Amino acid sequence: MKQDTALKLLKAGENVFLTGSAGAGKTYTLNQYIQYLKARKIPVAITASTGIAATHMNGMTIHTWAGIGIKDQLAENDLKRMKERKYLREHLEKVQVLIIDEISMLHAKQFNLVNQVLQYFKGSAEVFGGIQVVASGDFFQLPPVGKNDELNRDKFAFMSEAWVQAQFRVCYLSEQHRQSDSVLDQILNAIRRQAVSDAQIQTLINTKHQQHDTEIVTRLYTHNLDVDRINEQQLDTISQKTHRFDAVLEGNEKLLETLKSSVRCPEQLILKKGAKVMFVKNNFDLGYVNGSIGEVIGFIEDEELGMMPQVRLNDGSSIAVEAETWSIENEEGKVLASLTQIPLRLAWAITIHKSQGMTLESAEIDLARTFENGQGYVALSRLKSIEGLKLLDFNPQALVLDRLAVKADARFKELSDEAEQNFAELDLSKQHEAFIRRTGGITNPNEIARLEKKLQGQKRSYSSDTLAETQALYEADYDIEDIASERQLTKSTVINHLSKLAKAGSIDVERIRPEEDELEKVRKAYKKIQKRNQVDDLNDDGSVKLRPLVSETGLGYEKVRVALIFVA
After folding, report:
1. Domains and CATH numbers, the chain
2. Which residue of 274, 339, 446, 452 lies most exposed, with the fewest beta carbons within 10 A?
3. pTM to 2 decimal places
């Protein structure tokens, strides 16, 4: 299907599944539709199944937006508690169009939960509460993470009850926009059909002899062990001072093991100036996401945060990277276990799983030990051309795709072809107007033209007055966690904002004042560490660094940060 036909069907307000091969223009088409909606003031939620994909769409993860987190079921009490949270209630009740990108990586159970949440918040038994849902993705990408005994048919979103009820109109985009040569495009399409020829396999194998600039090449492996080995070898070749960052772990030991296995930064992070690194958490305010690649260009001291690596991203921007906290909470919001660490890992090599959503100029890829259907396809489809590929090792099994995904894809094509025949030449302008009216959008041509001009070429930008945005939410009685969720920031970043606002006398921080026993712990530890006067524990101005305070009090980074607003 052509993009124009897909846009015509999207504007008619039906639920749409937008699919096609890598580089077919799914994200571009979605962005066109988003601009259309915004110019008509139709409330749209832009989400994706992963942090990397979400930033491509200038959105947030569906898990955060819907408030489901990592849950795979919700009880009535869970929904009631969610409705008490102002930031969730406001956007869930208001939304008219929900976009979910990279739908292939969203588990069927969580897709059902999104349906359940919207029905509850909209007070409607209609599927997804009666709003338009646009799912985009390619089920030949790697499947969602699930339990060890789960089959892919248990995990794919298209096998969920919500998918069947939504009755998606399928738009299978057929034009190719990423690959710049027909050779790689033909190989990828042959993989999708599961009809790769011996000559095409030989073409892939022959790339082993291609030479690339080792400074910019990305190495993709199937296993973390290979990735860690390459990264450690590369780090050893750098003759710079070593800086070590140890994670701070607090809480239940079993839950901590769960955190350590799911969080992608190492418990002990070793960095040097010149190290190639990848971020493993989102911080939209600072300008990085889970998967951003950069290089350590130095280390700086902060009076509150201690030693921080300074990272230059591939776009040239520079970030001082502070520690982040991952936590597991119970139903009342109490933290049961937490892990605090610099959100980085070495990145001369990365796993194929982590490469999803990236577009690479060149890559060295090892497909010798693939263990998941689709790994070879995902890795190869990251590249723009066959000239950018150096296939280090190969196993024909790497090109095998999930059989259910192959069958589903064939059916998606058939449904899309039918829609193309039925709607390509049909005038749907009346349906477009009806959808705008139903969703409360505007129809005044002059107003639409004005908004379109304003939105033209507009990119996501971070507020020049980010403190004012935090202040406005705080003064509207949002708590720290809700401000973080609303602004897509970490809680530690919000606390830093509040600290600066308090010092400037801009806000009254009494309502976040910790219990007196916690404040006293921080006061005593602060004085004790100052008196000890060890260089490693103090900033240049004599104030105490954050890390030794956390170790001394046992309160955790976030509690200590809040206490310092009142103590230091």
Report:
1. 3-176+404-446 (3.40.50.300), 206-400 (no CATH), 466-567 (no CATH)
2. 446
3. 0.69
Torsion (CA) 95, 1, 359, 29 in degrees, nearest 10: -30
Produce one character per residue of 278-307: b if its CB has 16 or more CB atoms within 10 Å, e if not. bbbbbbbbbbbbbbbbbbbeebeeeebbbb
Within 10 Å of residue 429's Cβ, how many Cβ atoms? 11
| Cα(179)–Cα(185) distance, integer angstroms | 6
pLDDT in tens, 225-243: 888 899 999 999 999 999 9
Q: Which of 69, 44, 375 minimizes the C-alpha distance to 223?
A: 375
Task: Give the CA distances from residue 153 to residues 24, 108, 402, in Å, rounded to whole numbers and listed in that order.
Answer: 25, 9, 10
Q: What share of the chain is helix, strand, coil (3-state, %, to 5)?
A: 45, 20, 35
Phi-psi region of 137 (alpha: psi -120 to 50; beta: other; left: phi over 0): left
Residues lower than pLDDT 70 in the chain:
22-23, 50-59, 176-181, 212-216, 262, 282, 284-285, 290-291, 302-305, 329-334, 357-358, 456-466, 485-490, 534-536, 538-542, 568
User: What is the Cα–Cα distance from 533 to 535, expressed in whole angstroms?
Assistant: 6
Q: Are 66 and 13 a contacting pair, CB within 8 Å?
A: no
The DSSP symbol for 360 reads: B
Mind giving me the DSSP string for 456-475?
TT------TTHHHHHHHHHH
pLDDT for res 459:
40
How far is Cα 179 from Cα 184, in angstroms, rounded to an integer? 7
Q: First and final CA of the chain: distance in angstroms?
A: 62
DSSP SS3 for 229? helix
Residue 251 near residue 335, CB atoms below 8 Å: yes
Q: Whose CA is closest to 174, among 424, 457, 428, 425? A: 424
* Pairwise CA distance, residues 222 & 205, whole Å: 17
Length of the chain: 568
Beta bridge mates, 270: 244
Angle value at C-alpha 243, between 239 and 244, nearest 5 degrees = 135
Say what the pLDDT of residue 201 is.
94
Among 506, 504, 496, which Cα is nearest to 472's? 506
User: With contact defined as beta carbons under 8 Å apart, do 49 and 99 qualify?
Assistant: no
Task: Check if the beta carbon of residue 65 is closer than 8 Å to that of residue 91.
Answer: yes
Q: What is the DSSP letter of 533?
A: T
Nearest to 366 by CA among 241, 204, 530: 204
Q: Which amino acid is at 496?
A: N
Residue 223 CB contacts under 8 Å (≥ 6 apart), including other chains: 351, 369, 371
Residue 49 burial (CB < 10 Å; 0-12/13-18/19+)?
buried
Helices 86-94 + 480-487 axis angle, to 10:
30
- What 8-state DSSP symbol labels residue 167? T
The token pair at 470 is 């935090």
HSE-CB of 72 using CA atoms within 13 angstroms:
12
Cα 444 to Cα 448: distance, rounded to the nearest angstrom = 6
Pick the closest to residue 99 from 143, 138, 149, 54 (CA basis).
54
- The secondary structure element, H or E, covering residue 299 is strand 293-302
